[in-house]
Design goal:
26% helix, alpha/beta, three-stranded parallel sheet, globular, 206 residues, seven-stranded mixed sheet
């Protein structure tokens, strides 16, 4: 994040440092790979007696292979890679832990806001700042569709999606970056509804 937040580094220099590769699943940067490896390394160091399984978006060599571990960490080290590359701030890190196929912990980190959203089974969901201070959750009552703000992807659109949104007639439409950034924005009260529209062979989630 030092290079990301450094205003003295030009966009061209920043992009060069990332060693960006265009794959079928989308953009992959040096940061994606390094963050994925760092998370796995730290978890192994902190809990050496636990046989962790890992399912990371960056582990192409492990795709479609069964994971036999009971405890498995699911990692998306950099959701919203395009926004990270373009330094919009609208990217996130996703991390989840499941035990025997039941989600125990879910984490969404928004680095640009220094906010950490946490779900813990049996406790609920909350947000913390970098000082581990819990922040107030925003709760809103459901409104009619013509009073809501709909969040959509900035990079994935389609005439069918536009037609659907037009039929809902929302008060406002906001395009945002990563899924984690959009979901946390809803929890903060900046939006009410998120629509994800997936096409075959697209990186957009269903």
């Amino acid at each position: 994040m030092q290079s990301y937040n450094n205003d003295f580094i030009s966009q061209e220099e920043f992009t060069k440092k990332l060693d960006i590769k265009k794959l079928s699943k989308g953009l992959v940067t040096k940061a994606d790979l390094e963050v994925s490896d760092l998370i796995k390394e730290k978890l192994r160091d902190l809990y050496p007696k636990i046989s962790w399984g890992f399912l990371s978006e960056e582990d192409d060599n492990k795709r479609n292979k069964p994971i036999k571990n009971e405890w498995v960490w699911i990692i998306d080290p950099l959701d919203g890679t395009s926004d990270f590359v373009n330094r919009t701030g609208e990217f996130a890190m996703h991390l989840a832990l499941y035990f025997k196929k039941e989600i125990i912990i879910g984490i969404v980190l928004i680095p640009s806001e220094e906010k950490l959203w946490i779900y813990f089974e049996g406790i609920g969901t909350w947000c913390e700042d970098r000082n581990a201070q819990k922040l107030t959750n925003f709760k809103k009552e459901f409104m009619s569709f013509n009073e809501i703000t709909i969040l959509i992807s900035k990079s994935h659109s389609h005439p069918q999606l536009q037609s659907l949104i037009k039929s809902l007639n929302p008060k406002k439409i906001l395009g945002m970056g990563s899924v984690g950034y959009k979901v946390s924005s809803i929890l903060k009260g900046y939006g009410d509804f998120y629509i994800s529209f997936s096409l075959p062979n697209s990186s957009c989630p269903k």
